[in-house]
Amino acid sequence: MFSKIFLNSKNLIHNVEKIQEIAGHKICVMIKADAYGHGMKEIISILNDKIDYFGVSNQSEALLARKYTKKDIIVFGACEDYRICMQNDVSFALFSYLDAKRMIKIAEKYQLTPKMHLCLNTGMNRYGIKSEKELTKIISYLKKKNTPLTGIYTHFSSLTTDRDYTEKQKELFFKLAKLIPEEWHTIKHVGGGRSIFEELNVDMFRVGLEVYGYGNEFVKPVLSIESTIVDIQQVSKGEHVGYLCGYTAQKNITIATIPLGYGDGLPRKLSNRLIVKINGKQAHSTGNICMDAFMVDVTDINCKIGDSVLIMDNASDLAPIIESTEYEVLTNLCKFRGERKTV
Fold first, then answer.
1. What pLDDT, on a 0 to 100 scale, did the predictor assign at position 158?
2. How far is it, in rounded angstroms, from Cα 24 to Cα 12?
3. 27, 82, 122, 164 — which has fewest CB within 10 A?
């Protein structure tokens, strides 16, 4: 294939080991959205013997992950069929008393054991319960059914922006957590931003972006993208390049075509703003990025068809250009149609 994503396994392992060292507890590595665009299968293969849990967003991601690992997998979003999750030894989030009743009913009907992680809504206001009354009701029901909670968790929404709000979230989480029967041995876990730096009495931290090399100075980017020059065009002064006359040549120039576009997750907002490297020299994109390709000005670069092109080795370079975050740059790569290679 002309285009490839390279995964630096040394950097990935370095990141995980540093996170474990700082956290001092088990970690759950989030591999949702195709492991933040890195490739779920590839990330699991590297980390399978180094971590305790993998986290995903939905049932289909969980079932795909189960093909590659026997480790614990937790679904943090809603599932379409909890019976299938139970049959595949997949843990899942519990959001309400009604959820608890529904899941126990399924478990009893099919003689299965549910692994439930109760979401405590401490201020994210996305999923879960926030009242002591509902938690007590859930605990009472699960006691009657002799089904303990596997875990309880929350998500900090504003760790890097609002300390007061974060402290309120912490207070509510531990207040509710005290109600969980000790004999259940329910694990407590948290996630969100820089949660590993919070001195919290929990059993596990959920980590995402930092695993892949962003958010802190001690981690290293894991992913880079390379492609290949597949065509070279001579463009005369005054001619246009790409759709909608997105670029007009101010002089006679040489254009190279790279077979990667927004259909592969390369944001169209990078049009005329993306800088790549060819044979050690910078080349600027010209014209609007197409679905399947983009063009760069190689007038002053000694290159030929077949030469390699470094498109990205740090998502932080592209995030400000598209006025977004590394999260969006990376997860866009779920659409990547090239090859992924571990190095």
1. 87
2. 18
3. 164
pLDDT in tens, 45-103: 999 999 999 999 999 999 999 999 999 999 999 999 999 999 999 999 999 999 999 99
In a domain, 66, yes or no: yes
Domain final residue, candidates 188, 212, 236: 212
How many domains does one find in the chain?
A: 2
* Confidence band of 193 (pLDDT split at 50, 70, 90): low
Instruction: Specify whether 34 is located in the same domain as 62.
Output: yes
- Asked if residue 57 and residue 27 are part of one domain, the reply reads yes
Could you say which of 161, 178, 212 is where a domain stops?
Answer: 212
Range of the domain at 51: 8-212
Q: Does 182 lie in the same domain as 233?
A: no
pLDDT tier, 236 (very low <50, low <70, confident <90, very high otherwise): very high
Based on the fold, state whether residues 113 and 259 are members of the same structural domain: no
Query: Could you tell me what percent of the chain has a pLDDT over 90?
Result: 92
Judge if 79 and 181 occupy the same domain: yes
The CATH number given to whatever domain includes residue 193 is 3.20.20.10
pTM, two decimal places: 0.93
pLDDT at 194: 81
